[in-house]
Design a protein that fits this description.
The structure is a single chain. With 311 residues, the chain is an alpha/beta fold. It has a domain of 214 residues: P-loop containing nucleotide triphosphate hydrolases (Rossmann fold), CATH 3.40.50. The chain is built from 12 helices and 10 strands. The strands form 2 sheets. An 8-stranded mixed β-sheet has the order 1-6-5-7-4-8-9-10, sandwiched between helices. The longest helix is centred in the N-terminal third of the chain and has 33 residues.
Length: 311
């Protein structure tokens, strides 16, 4: 049994497996309405940005042009509100279980000094193409592995494996995002060595993946120039959660009405410190900066604190 699987087994007392169909149907994700179908995993054999509170708050403009969160005020109680409270309680339970597993994932990754990058975007933004280009540009060390998330097919995982990098495909069925337990199951199937890179390509969706902590080291949101430069304000939770915004398909800029400076300015209204990279998988633009960003990425929040304090 390889190192990651052994650690996962230790943290969970038994081998992590995908829940049985009845268990999934009993805990349908009320956060986004997905669930019911059992995820299929193929391939080789804390509260924070994703918390319930962050998703039940409204975005409110500030006088300085940035956008802040404003907590909803509860209306007078009614039968409908009481029913809504039960839904919220279920959401808390779902996210609580997810957060607990995410913390176990984070500990496994920290123990092995693995950097895990959660790639998120809308469908068709170019995640897989950029990831293939990344894997082809990476040096042999550190080693890399990929967890692919899609509702159906192994098409993306097959593209990854063609580069010589191991990949596990997770098909979520009706689910619109990966969760921490799916990622744990994927990690257990990969031979993750110490000091390696793990790329997690989430299901194409600009809403729900932002709410679910996977135990990753960093969240990266990709925005293609064909989508429009107003997306950061239309999907603020996603861009607020991101550690980096990657603008893709810049080779198409002469043919579309997209202003990268405007997109970055709008993203900084919901996430003032978020950096942006301009990239093209076709031309290789931004690849050197992307690889440098990956190489400089601290392993864990604890590592970031140690660096800040010189520990």
């Amino acid at each position: 049994m390889h190192a990651a699987a052994q650690l996962i087994e230790a943290y969970n007392e038994k081998r992590i497996s995908v829940p049985a169909r009845k268990a999934r149907e009993a805990s349908v994700c009320t956060v986004c309405g997905c669930g019911g179908a059992r995820p299929q995993i193929g391939g080789p054999a804390p509260r924070g940005k994703g918390s319930l509170e962050s998703r039940t708050q409204a975005w409110q403009p500030r006088s300085d042009g940035t956008i802040s969160l404003m907590q909803h005020r509860s209306p007078p109680l009614s039968p409908a509100v009481e029913a809504g409270r039960r839904v919220v309680d279920l959401e808390r339970a779902i996210l609580g279980r997810n957060d607990a597993q995410a913390q176990k994932n984070r500990q496994v990754l920290a123990d092995l000094r693995i950097r895990a990058i959660n790639l998120m975007s809308s469908p068709g933004a170019g995640k897989t193409s950029w990831l293939v280009s990344t894997l082809e540009a990476l040096p042999r060390e550190p080693a890399a592995a990929v967890i692919e998330g899609d509702q159906q097919t192994e098409l993306d995982a097959e593209r990854i494996r063609a580069t010589g990098v191991p990949a596990v495909q997770i098909n979520t069925g009706k689910g619109c995002h990966l969760d921490a337990q799916m990622v744990a199951a994927g990690m257990a199937r990969l031979d993750l060595g110490a000091d390696s890179l793990l790329f997690i390509e989430n299901v194409g969706n600009l809403v729900c993946p932002a709410a679910f902590d996977l135990g990753e080291t960093a969240k990266v949101v990709l925005l293609s120039v064909t989508e429009g430069d107003d997306k950061p304000l239309k999907y603020p939770d996603m861009f607020a959660a991101a550690d980096l915004m990657v603008v893709t398909k810049t080779d198409l800029l002469p043919y579309v009405d997209f202003d990268p400076r405007k997109a970055h300015a709008l993203a900084r209204r919901v996430n003032p410190g978020v950096p942006m990279l301009l990239t093209s998988a076709r031309w290789g633009e931004g690849m050197a900066e992307w690889l440098a960003w990956l190489a400089a990425l601290p392993l864990t929040p604890q590592a970031r604190l140690e660096e800040q304090h010189g520990g």
